[in-house]
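Lab notebook, page 48
Experiment: co-folding of the full assembly
Goal: obtain a model of how the components sit together before planning crosslinking
Operator: M.T.
Materials (sequences as entered):
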Amino acid sequence: AQKVTQAQTEISVVEKEDVTLDCVYETRDTTYYLFWYKQPPSGELVFLIRRNSFDEQNEISGRYSWNFQKSTSSFNFTITASQVVDSAVYFCALSEAWAGNNRKLIWGLGTSLAVNP
Amino acid sequence: AAGVIQSPRHLIKEKRETATLKCYPIPRHDTVYWYQQGPGQDPQFLISFYEKMQSDKGSIPDRFSAQQFSDYHSELNMSSLELGDSALYFCASSLGRSDTQYFGPGTRLTVL
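Observation: model returned without errors.
Model output:
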C-alpha cells in the first residue's frame, strides 16, 4: 500500500534558521513521483517540486533544497535562512505510475512550519 | 501564466441544500481532479476526469456527483448538504497522465 509519512506535525524556528522537513514514503511500484506542496495561511496549494523515482539528483532552488534518497525512501525538504513568509503547512505527496489515466496524490498529513521574527 | 480557476471562492449553504462548484483547468490541460480538505487535514481525493471521462473515484459520497464538459471545465454537484461537508474543495488540473497537478485557490464551503 502507498503511504506518505511526515513525522513532524509542527516546527517552530526563528527567522534565518535552517529547517528540514522530513518525508518518508512507502510504495511497491518502481516508478513513482514525489511532490512537495506549500499551503500558506491564505489556503491555496502551491506546487514546489516534482521528482520521479529514477532521478535521485538533489535539487536546489534559491533557499529551497530537496534530498531524495531511495535507499531510505525519503524525500526531505530544507529551507535555508528561513523567512517569515515561509510560514505555511508543507505537504509531501506521492503518485504512482501504474495508476494509468489518473494520478491521484497520496498525501502526508503535512508539517506546519512557523517562522518567527 | 494562466492558473486553475475555481468559483465561487466562498459558499455558505444550509443543511439539505445543494451546491455546485466549478473548475476551469489551465488551458490545454485534459485532466481534472477534485479534492476535499477538512480543517487541519490533508486533502482527500474525491474524483478525477481524463478527456471528459471519469478516470478514478475516491471517497466521494453518493450525494456528490461531478462531470467534465466538452470545454474541459468541471463541476462538482453536492446535494443534501450536511454539516460535515464544510471544507475547502480544491480542483487541480494536469496535462496528460504523468504531469504535475496544479491546484486552484479552492472553494471554501460552509454548511450551517
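Interpretation: The mean pLDDT of chain A is 92.
Next step: discuss with group before ordering constructs.
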